[in-house]
Amino acid sequence: MKLEAQNLTWSARQLPIVSDVSVSIKSGEMFGLIGPNGSGKSTLMRMLAGLSKPQKGVVELDGISLKQTSRRQIAQKLAFVEQQAETQDLIKVRDAVELGRTCWLSAISPWSAHDTYIVDTALRSVDMYHMANRSWHTLSGGERQRVHIARALAQEPSVLLLDEPTNHLDISYQVSILDLVTQLDTTTVVALHDLNQAFKCDRIGVMQAGKMIAIGTPEEILKPKFLEEVFGVCVHTLIDPNNGKTVLSFHSVSSGREHNMRQVI
Ligand SMILES: Nc1ncnc2c1ncn2[C@@H]1O[C@H](COP(=O)(O)OP(=O)(O)O)[C@@H](O)[C@H]1O
Ligand SMILES: [Mg+2]
């Protein structure tokens, strides 16, 4: 399913937070969103998900505006894991993931074994099946994050929006969740703060001060000089001896390049 945004604009008290952003995300594409803190990534994603209404511009799923789509229809097409996702404290892990099935249930299609199967599969894919009966409030931040991702997967969306999904995860789950997302056929938009993780995306959009200042492949975007301009840090590339792929290394501007080069060597 294609996700298209045209001229999206959102301001708070006259202050532009997202200005005139247009982007077209192809069916099945994994699209990364990068940019400094406060550059408008989460605000943009909330508009893409239909959670906040753009003051200008439209979001379309396969050519149909979200404005003309009911919440239930949107939920059948699109799932969103917010950066600060919260869930009612008193529920169990399995209940939280079952919520993902809500948009598919109705009087004529009540809960069935198929729904249980989808929930089980989603729990397993984020390695939370063994904790299905745990109370939500006993979970760590990383476990909660994995449950939110499972809830989104249980929704069986054509479009998946993930706002910094690896934020609270330890390195092993960062790798496995990102691999999982990469392998999905779903159209995916993922905001990432780890720029090395962004290499896994098909294309990357760069946000700066509310604007989408560049869109391109990881090879086009993840270049030291450009990243230095956007993020205000020194950036070097290294080659991973394990697979020959490029890895980015970051240093503060004040500590100086030559000093850092010695450290790297
Ligand atoms: N509802 C709001 N009211 C006022 N300012 C907001 C609101 N939502 C976001 N902002 C501000 O907009 C900027 C962009 O925020 P955000 O979209 O969360 O950026 P990012 O996800 O890139 O870190 C920040 O400076 C933030 O404080
Ligand atoms: Mg954010």
Word description of this protein:
It is built from nine helices and twelve strands. 31% of the residues lie in helices and 27% in strands. The chain is α/β, with parallel strands linked by helices and 265 residues long. Helix 4 (113-125) crosses helix 5 (141-154). The strands form three sheets. It has a six-stranded mixed beta sheet with strand order 6-7-8-3-9-10, with helices on both faces. Strands 2-1-4-5 form a four-stranded antiparallel beta sheet. Strands 11-12 form a two-stranded antiparallel ribbon. Magnesium ion binds at residues 41-42, 83, 163. Magnesium ion (MG) is lined by residues 41-42, 83, 163.
Question: Which structural traits does this protein have?
Answer:
265 residues; alpha/beta; six-stranded mixed β-sheet; 9 helices; globular; binds adenosine-5'-diphosphate; binds magnesium ion
In brief:
This protein has 265 residues and is α/β, with parallel strands linked by helices.
What is the CA-atom radius of gyration, in angstroms?
20 Å
Q: Please give the count of helices.
A: 9
Topology as a string of helices (H) and strands (E): EEEHEEHEHHHEHEEEHHEEH
Cα shape:
globular
Strand content: 25-35%
**Ligands (ions, cofactors included):** adenosine-5'-diphosphate, magnesium ion
The helix/strand class is alpha/beta
Number-wise, the strands total: 12
Oligomeric organization of the protein chains:
single chain
Helix fraction, binned, reads 25-40%
Sheet having the most strands: 6 strands, mixed
Mean pLDDT: 93
Adjacency order of strands in the biggest sheet: 6-7-8-3-9-10
Spans of at least 5 consecutive residues whose pLDDT stays below 50 are: none
Task: Give the end-to-end Cα distance, rounded to a whole number of Å.
Answer: 46 Å
